[in-house]
Structures are given as structure tokens and as C-alpha cells.
Amino acid sequence: MPLLALEPTLTDPTPLLWATLPVGAYLVGSFPTAHLLARSRGVDLGTVGSKNYGATNLGRTLGKPWGFTCFIIDAVKGALPTLAAGWLLGTLGAPAGGVSALSAWCWIAAVAAVILGHTLSPWIGFKGGKGVATGFGALAALWPVLTLPAIFALVIWVVLVLIFRMVSLASMVAAVAVPCAVLVAAVSNHGLQGARDAVPFLAASSLIGAFVVFKHRSNIERIRAGTENKVLQRTPKTTTPPDEAAKPNRVSP
């Protein structure tokens, strides 16, 4: 029996699961984490910074601890419906070739729905974040096919943020790295058959990567112009020169 799965399955999901899993995942994903955290401090996140309802803009506005908290909540928000869907479908813990293609696609539909809910939340006028944290949580919860590729992408994200100080650049590269890692892992383990078995997961991670890049198109323009916001930058302290401090304030006649 696959780890944590309801039961091993090579059968197709029922129409009820096709109808309820994506809808439930969308509703969970639509929880406006950044918006509510900002509102708790009297801030309308849609009017400050990049006007984006995500962890990065929240962190810039209220401070790093707030952004980190939002990232964790959004990642969990992506993981929970994905784990629940995999458990109900009997796909959780099964290898890529161990479930029916339609079960894999139904599982992926739930992943797509939770990310869509995050980026287009009906509670804040169908606005939202860019799907990075929620997407990471959802992909990592596709155990075991995408778990290690998602963790690999997170490591890349951290390294790029430390080097280039740009969350947007790190997010886009990490998102593209996931399908590449899935393909390499599938081929190295099972050759061409492994790649064929992993087609649904390759397609899903590729589409999610493309979606993340699309959501960052304004960031791409700022990166090209050299005006993209950076993080982890120390603000130099300004001190008043002694000679200036000694001068009396001038009063205009």
C-alpha cells in the first residue's frame, strides 16, 4: 500500500472526486493570508509597495518576520489540500507509474486549483499573490514524485536570494528548475519509461513554472532596467558631520 494512501489504486477517480477536489482546493487556496496579516496592522497591502498580496510585499511593508510567517502559512495552505486529494485518490506515496493517468491528472487539478485560488482570491476582488509559496507547498506535497524536486528548487531559491538579493529572480529560476529536476530524476531512475510515467507531473510542473514566470513579468522589466527591489540589504547609517552640527540654524530674514 502506498504510504498514507487510502488504498492503492490503478482505477480512475469518480466524477464526485473530479468535481469536489479542485473546488475544495480552490477555496483553501483563496484564503488571503497576506491581506489579513496586513489588515491586522492597519495596512491595505493593495495600496503599498508592489501592491501584491504576497509574502514578499508583506515582508517589505511590515518587516521580514511578517513575510516569513506569510510564506509558511501559504506553503501549508498549498500542501494541505494536495495531501488530502492524494489520500482520497490513493495516489499519495505511489510512484509515478503506480497510479492511473486520470488519477494523476485529478491530483494535479487540485494542485492547479489551490494555486489559482491563491492568485485569484474572490475575497479580495480576485487578486492575490504570485503563487510561489503556495506552489512550493503544493508541489512538495505531491509525494513522492515532486517532493524532492520541490525541495531542490527551494535550495536554489535560497542560494539565488543570498547571491542576487532578488526574490523575483530566485522565484522564477526555482519554478523552472522543478520540471527539469523531475525529468532528470525520472530518466535516471527508470529511463524513457520513467519519463513517460512522469508525463502528467512534468506537464503540471512545467505549466506552474510558466505561470510563475508570467506572474513576474513586471519584475522581469524591472530586472532588465536595473530597478528591481532587493532584499537583505543593509541601509547605511547617515551621520551629521561635526562641522555641520556645530553650525547654528540659519533663519531667513
Structure description:
With 253 residues, this protein is mainly alpha-helical. It has one domain. It contains 11 helices and no strands. The longest helix has 31 residues. The chain is globular and about 50 Å long. The chain starts with 14 loop residues before the first helix and ends in a 7-residue tail after the last helix.
Layout of helices and strands, plus pairs?
Blueprint: H1 15-29, H2 33-39, H3 55-62, H4 64-89, H5 101-119, H6 132-140, H7 147-164, H8 167-197, H9 199-215, H10 217-225, H11 242-246
Number of helices: 11
By secondary-structure content and strand pairing, the structural class works out as mainly alpha
* Oligomeric state of shown chains: single chain
The end-to-end distance, rounded to whole angstroms, is 89 Å
Profile the largest sheet.
none
Count the E strands. 0
Q: Give the domain tally.
A: 1
Radius of gyration: 22 Å
Shape: globular
Give the low-pLDDT segments: 1-8, 238-242, 244-253
β-strand percent reads under 5%
List keywords for this structure.
single chain; 253 residues; 11 helices; disordered N terminus; mainly alpha
Quick gist of this model?
The chain has 253 residues and is mostly helical.
